[in-house]
Amino acid sequence: MDVMAEPVAHPITVAIERRIDPDRTVEATSWMQAGTDLATGFTGFLGSGWVRAGEGSDLWYMLYRFRDIPTLEAWEQSAQRAWWLDSGRAFAREVRVERRTGIEGWFDAPFATDVETRHVGDADSASPTGPIQQPIPAAPPRWKQAVAIWLGFFPTNLLASWLLGFVPGFTDWPLVVRVLLATVLLTPVMTYLVLPWVTRMLRPWLHRNR
């Protein structure tokens, strides 16, 4: 009997470009952090962050990631997010939104990916055919992504192994238990802290000669 395989769920990274009133940056900073705090409470949330294009720029970029499309849409269609967006309409204007699949979402420069793009306010964005598909440059080569991940994982794993060595009797635990504990501790550290930091530091090299 043939068994149909279930589709593999891929993490979805959403990048949003906004114009922020320069006279209300203090409010906008608190507002952006409030959005992150709200998203944290939703199932499937994997992390987020935001940056300004420059000290004198009104362009702000926000990036957040969910486990898959259903968990992302649960957040995007929630009453909490609707309330949060409405509270910022006086000083924040959404300009562009992109969705990115897979690990590449952490490696792409702002708005340099391949899934879907919509320009908020454009006539085409209201089209019943949905978001505009654009030929956008690909993510860095896989070997560069692998190097970046290794550069983050090796020292993190080394430090974790050294620290866990101070746990009484840890070396006597079964191998599967030790590995399980290490991966449970390291996965969120890599996702929320190490990988975003490493890719930010290596961005010029990752995107060189693309």
Automatic annotation (TrEMBL):
Query: Highest taxon of the source?
Result: Bacteria
Tell whether Hydrolase is among the UniProt keywords. Answer: no
Sample GO molecular function, one term: monooxygenase activity
Keywords of this entry: Membrane, Monooxygenase, Oxidoreductase, Transmembrane, Transmembrane helix
The UniProt entry, under InterPro entries, shows: ABM_predict (IPR038762), Dimeric_a/b-barrel (IPR011008)
Q: Which residues cross the membrane?
A: 147-167, 179-198
**Signal sequence, start to end:** none
Name assigned to this protein: Antibiotic biosynthesis monooxygenase
**Species in which this protein is naturally found:** Microbacterium insulae
